[in-house]
């Protein structure tokens, strides 16, 4: 990379094609353009998106003075990459913080406040767990054994469920850890990889032996600090997508075109074949697509075939608006999660009118429910009317709703949540090694690989820019130095 104010590089322009206009793809386009302009690099970028809009699952609706997120709705304050991007596109003054979180969990059909110090359900303080009614005496005793249980034996990987059951016992896992993590990852914690999702807990056990003791000596999870809250943008997260697109030069973005195949070019580099029969040449390609699309995109290379075996869960969000008078039993918190031992279809629900008061008109309430998780996905395929009745029945159990909703918005996301099952990190490493060896200049990023959350996708989009520019620096006569 050239230093700030370094010499202008001349010569034939090199071409980078980014496939996929979700958050990872548009972030990489934004940071590439920034580098190109700052250092006057002889590089052209093209971002190709199959749909007519950028941003993937980030979609914000304004309806009857309600602001509703169809996909991701916020992010933890401790995530720095996304806040940096928000500042760079000029939206820093639009950042808002959520009201203080107070969550409930429904376990065995009963409602409990989640104990203080429960970092994603994992005990970090003993006192709140001693006084909660969520666990039996023996469950509490078993959880406190984390203080004396020895370290786990060295393993290449282990499931989240197995790890935390060993440390805290079944009750804490089933009544608290599982429902909270299911709300985030929509997966089976007895299949999800600890080293891919929570490597910091594995490392804390190795260093401190006890997770409770480790949490007192290091930050194990962004947002565990009492001052940290969730952040979003005043006009919704789609405003971030729109701000990024506005910053991109008009000739960079190509929407409404699908990439059918990527092939090696006889002249070096790659031919990116589009569904309209046209092709684009690329010296380097960034693939920011879901994993299950890659085996067809790179059909000549068998090392992509195992991606067909990675599960991806379908989920749906259900936004339901009511008059305040229609809800007899109002809860003080900002939402709830549901343990599998309870007869609910909802996995979790956010009380948007309490968490984000500015998003709901006076005299109204907005419940944002989530359905669909590993082993329970068929509900996502039901009609909107059927889903509305199921969710309404679940909400009525808690809050005695006396009227029909003013409106309901159902948003389905098919195969939206890739599952990082045991061994995921090693499989991803092996895949990228094979790609680097057989397809130099191809870079694989996105939620299927190194983090499913919005901040993770942004971090990947920024990081891959350095990888691509490093590759182009080594290629041909046009040195970036």
Walk me through the structure.
By secondary structure, this protein is of the alpha+beta class. It has three domains: 14-56 and 240-310 and 421-473, FAD/NAD(P)-binding domain, CATH 3.50.50.60; 118-217, protoporphyrinogen ix oxidase, domain 3 (Orthogonal Bundle); 313-418, Protoporphyrinogen oxidase, mitochondrial, domain 2 (Polyamine Oxidase, Chain A, domain 2), CATH 3.90.660. Helix content is 32%, strand content 22%. The chain has 15 helices and 22 strands. The chain has a seven-stranded mixed β-sheet, with helices on both faces. Strand 7 and strand 8 form a beta hairpin. Helix 1 (23-39) runs parallel beside helix 10, helix 1 (23-39) crosses helix 15 (454-473) and helix 2 (80-88) crosses helix 15 (454-473). Mean pLDDT is 92; it is low at 1-10.
Short characterization:
The chain is an alpha+beta fold and 481 residues long. The chain contains 15 helices and 22 strands.
CATH topology of the largest domain: FAD/NAD(P)-binding domain
**Mean of all residue-level pLDDT scores:** 92
Proportion in helices: 25-40%
Q: Enumerate the strands of the largest sheet in spatial order, edge to edge or round the barrel.
A: 8-7-18-19-20-17-21
CATH architecture of the largest domain: 3-Layer(bba) Sandwich
Question: What's the CATH H-level homologous superfamily of the largest domain?
Answer: FAD/NAD(P)-binding domain
DSSP helix count?
15
**CA-based shape:** globular
What is the total domain count?
3
Number of strands: 22
How much strand?
15-25%
Find the structural class using helix and strand composition.
alpha+beta
CATH class of the largest domain: Alpha Beta
Largest sheet: 7 strands, mixed
């Amino acid at each position: 990379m050239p230093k700030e104010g370094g010499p202008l590089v001349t010569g034939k322009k090199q071409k980078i094609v980014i496939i996929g206009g979700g958050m990872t793809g548009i972030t990489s386009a934004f940071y590439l353009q920034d580098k190109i302009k700052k250092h006057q690099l002889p590089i052209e970028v093209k971002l190709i998106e199959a749909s007519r809009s950028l941003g993937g699952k980030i979609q914000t609706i304004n309806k009857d003075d309600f602001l509703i997120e169809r996909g991701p709705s916020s992010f933890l304050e401790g995530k720095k990459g996304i806040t940096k991007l928000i500042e760079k596109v000029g939206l820093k003054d639009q950042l808002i913080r959520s009201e203080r979180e107070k969550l409930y969990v429904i376990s065995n059909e009963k409602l409990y406040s989640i104990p203080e110090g429960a970092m994603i359900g994992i005990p970090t303080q003993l006192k709140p767990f001693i006084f909660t009614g969520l666990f039996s005496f023996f469950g509490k005793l078993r959880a406190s054994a984390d203080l004396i249980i020895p370290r786990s034996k060295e393993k290449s990987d282990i499931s989240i469920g197995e790890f935390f059951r060993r440390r805290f016992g079944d009750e804490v896992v089933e009544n608290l850890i599982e429902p909270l993590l299911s709300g985030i990852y929509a997966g089976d914690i007895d299949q999800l990889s600890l080293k891919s999702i929570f490597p910091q807990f594995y490392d804390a056990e190795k260093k401190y032996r006890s997770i409770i003791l480790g949490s007192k000596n290091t930050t194990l999870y962004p947002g565990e600090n009492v001052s940290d809250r969730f952040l979003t943008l005043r006009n919704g997260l789609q405003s971030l997508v729109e701000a990024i697109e506005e910053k991109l030069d008009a000739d960079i973005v190509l929407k409404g075109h699908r990439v059918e195949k990527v092939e090696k070019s006889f002249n070096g580099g790659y031919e990116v074949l589009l569904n309209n029969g046209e092709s684009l040449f690329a010296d380097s390609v960034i693939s920011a697509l879901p994993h299950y699309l890659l085996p067809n995109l790179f059909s000549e290379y068998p090392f992509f075939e195992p991606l067909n075996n990675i599960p991806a869960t379908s989920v749906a969000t259900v936004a339901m608006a009511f008059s305040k008078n229609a809800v007899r039993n109002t809860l003080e918190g900002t939402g709830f999660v549901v343990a599998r031992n309870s007869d609910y279809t909802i996995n979790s629900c956010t009380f948007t009118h309490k968490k984000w008061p500015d998003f709901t008109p006076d005299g109204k309430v907005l419940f944002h429910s989530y359905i669909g998780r590993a082993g329970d996905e068929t509900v996502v395929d039901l009609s909107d009317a059927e889903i509305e009745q199921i969710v309404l029945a679940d909400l009525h159990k808690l809050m005695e709703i006396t009227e029909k909703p003013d409106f309901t918005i159902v948003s389905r996301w098919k195969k939206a949540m890739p599952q990082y099952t045991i061994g995921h990190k090693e499989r991803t490493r092996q895949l990228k090694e094979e790609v680097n060896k057989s397809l130099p200049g191809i870079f694989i990023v996105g939620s299927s690989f190194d983090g499913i959350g919005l901040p993770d996708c942004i971090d990947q989009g920024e990081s891959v820019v350095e990888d691509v520019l490093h590759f182009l620096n080594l290629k041909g006569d046009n040195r970036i130095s």
